[in-house]
Specification:
alpha/beta; 8 helices; 8 strands; DNA_repair_put; Probable DNA metabolism protein; DUF4130
Length: 260
């Protein structure tokens, strides 16, 4: 019986594509592909660490582009960012299927891996759009607009262009607290950054130690306005939650009113 291998990689898309290249180059039978922080489950498999090789990753992506639609490539990118357990193995199966067939098959949802990748990508797409809608910036004492987020999926790379286009005239930072990295825009470029943030900075509200006095005043004014215009007797909470799921309330000033 041919021994299976468990591949580990650095968690990047290039690293994953380097794993795909290795499976072809060495004719590997893969049991799992593990990003950092994931433990090996297959007791009788050989463990292998794959070093990211940009050239090998580029070759895999080029081969994939030749046989995959724009929607299929988007699904691969989005599904990879889902961080769902086992998604790498599903992506590998989908990529092998696409490359092996002469006809386009990236939309063949009768294939289990193509279907699972598409389902994961759809979830990530929804999260992307909601982050674009619900991110709330707060003006810091350093005159930088700051937003903290904790998305279910790793959508920060997907929302970069949206915010660069929409807020091109101001400096801003969007920071993913769950994954401890962020985007920083300096009026010219958007860069990925890491920071040591004080937990007291929070996701909403405006602690005086970090935020501009005008921001604090604005949030108080907004709270007063929302409280005065919110007619509880007319509230339809079921419909409200349908359009604005509770897990996004933490980003909204009006959902974090001080106790009276």
């Amino acid at each position: 019986m041919e021994q299976q291998v468990v591949l580990s990689y650095d968690g990047s898309l290039e690293g994953f594509l380097s794993c795909v290249f290795a499976t072809y180059e060495e004719k590997l039978k893969v049991a799992e592909i593990l990003p950092p922080g994931k433990n090996m489950q297959e007791l009788f498999s050989e463990a292998r660490e794959i070093i990211t090789d940009p050239e090998k990753a580029k070759r895999v992506w080029s081969s994939l582009k030749k046989k995959t639609s724009a929607a299929g490539l988007r699904d691969v990118k989005y599904a990879f960012l889902s961080e769902i357990d086992g998604i790498e193995k599903q992506l590998l199966a989908m990529i092998r299927y696409i490359i092996a067939e002469d006809a386009p098959v990236d939309r063949d949802f009768s294939h289990p891996s193509v279907l699972k990748v598409a389902q994961a990508a759809k979830k990530v797409g929804r999260e992307k759009h909601r982050m674009e809608a619900f991110v709330r910036f707060r003006l810091t004492r350093d005159a930088i607009y700051f937003a903290a987020i904790e998305p279910d999926f790793n959508v920060l790379p997907l929302i970069k262009n949206h915010f660069r286009s929409r807020y091109a005239d101001q400096k801003w930072i969007i920071y993913d607290l769950k994954r401890n990295f962020g985007l920083a825009y300096d009026l010219q470029n958007v860069n990925f950054i890491t920071m040591d943030l004080d937990p007291a900075i929070g996701i909403s509200g405006a602690p005086e130690a970090y935020f501009h006095t005008s921001e604090i005043s604005f949030q108080k004014l907004w709270n007063q306005y929302f409280s005065s215009t919110n007619i509880k007797s007319r509230a339809n909470e079921k419909l409200h939650v349908q359009h604005l799921p509770k897990r996004y309330w933490k980003y909204l000033t009006e959902k974090n009113l001080p106790e009276k």
